[in-house]
User: Which sequence fits this backbone?
C-alpha cells in the first residue's frame, strides 16, 4: 500500500480517563500489534508517565497535560511502541539492559519489523491506517533517548503521595520491568503480561526467564493490571493468564 494514500488525521492520540488519578492514551490509527498504552498517573509532587507510544506524532503538542507536573517517564522496555516518544521527556528511566540510547531496528512496514523483532506471525504491509500531516512512514526511525536514570529491581518511583516499586521481570526482553503500587495493588505491566498471546519468541526473548518472571508476579497481591496493550483486568484474570502460560510452557 502506498503511504501517500493514507488519510491524514488532525489528532493522533486518544485520551481516556480511567479514574481520578489515572489516564490512558492510545494511538487509534495503529495496528493493534503496535498499539501500546501510555499511562499517566498523577502524583502530588510530580506525575508518572509509563511508556510513550511510537513517536509518530509529538505527544507534547496534543497532550500537554502529560508534561504539566514535572513528569517522570518510565519506559517498560525499549520496543518501538513503548519508547518512541521518550526523547520528549527530560527525566527518562529504564532498565540498563534496554537499548534506549541505541534503539533496536524499528519500522512502520510490517515485513521489516517482523524480521527486526524475530516475529513468527504475519503483519500487514503498513502498521498504520492513517497518518499525521507531514509523516512519512518510510522515513520512520526511533530517536535515541538514553535513560537519565537506570532502574534496577526494587527501585522506588516517588510521586509524593504515592510510590511505585520497580520489578525487573525479564523474558519478553532482557530489561522488561513492571511498576507496582503496593498501597492500591495496581500493577503497570508493560509487555510482561497483557490479555493476549505473550511474545516470548522474539530475538531477545528468553522463555525460561519469562516463566520465572511470571511465577514471581503470580505471588504478588495484585488487584488491577494496566498492561502495555489492550484493556485493564483484575488479579483473578492475571493469575489465570499466568497459569495458562506456565501450563503450556
Ligand atoms: Zn514489546
Assistant:
Amino acid at each position: 500500500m502506498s503511504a501517500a494514500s493514507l488519510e491524514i488525521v488532525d489528532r493522533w492520540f486518544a485520551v481516556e480517563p480511567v479514574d481520578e488519578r489515572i489516564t490512558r492514551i492510545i494511538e487509534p490509527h495503529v495496528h493493534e500489534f503496535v498499539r501500546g498504552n501510555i499511562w499517566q498517573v498523577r502524583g502530588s509532587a510530580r506525575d508518572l508517565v509509563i511508556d510513550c507510544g511510537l513517536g509518530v506524532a509529538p505527544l507534547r503538542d496534543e497532550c500537554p497535560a502529560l508534561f504539566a507536573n514535572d513528569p517522570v517517564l518510565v519506559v517498560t522496555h525499549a520496543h518501538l511502541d513503548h519508547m518512541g516518544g521518550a526523547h520528549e521527556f527530560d527525566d527518562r528511566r529504564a532498565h540498563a539492559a534496554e537499548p534506549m540510547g541505541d534503539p533496536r531496528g524499528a519500522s512502520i512496514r510490517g515485513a521489516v519489523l517482523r524480521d527486526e523483532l524475530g516475529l513468527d506471525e504475519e503483519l500487514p504491509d503498513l502498521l498504520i491506517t492513517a497518518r499525521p500531516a507531514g509523516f512519512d512512514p518510510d522515513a520512520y526511525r526511533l530517536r535515541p533517548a538514553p535513560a537519565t536514570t537506570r532502574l534496577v529491581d526494587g527501585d522506588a518511583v516517588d510521586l509524593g503521595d504515592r510510590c511505585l516499586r520497580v520489578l525487573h521481570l525479564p523474558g519478553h526482553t532482557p530489561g522488561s520491568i513492571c511498576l507496582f503500587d503496593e498501597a492500591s495493588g495496581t500493577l503497570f505491566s508493560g509487555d510482561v503480561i497483557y490479555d493476549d498471546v505473550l511474545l516470548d519468541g522474539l530475538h531477545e526473548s528468553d522463555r525460561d526467564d519469562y516463566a520465572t518472571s511470571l511465577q514471581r508476579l503470580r505471588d504478588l497481591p495484585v488487584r488491577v493490571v494496566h498492561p502495555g496493550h489492550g484493556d485493564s483486568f483484575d488479579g483473578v484474570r492475571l493469575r489465570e493468564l499466568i497459569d495458562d502460560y506456565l501450563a503450556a510452557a
User: Anything to note?
Assistant: The mean pLDDT is 96.
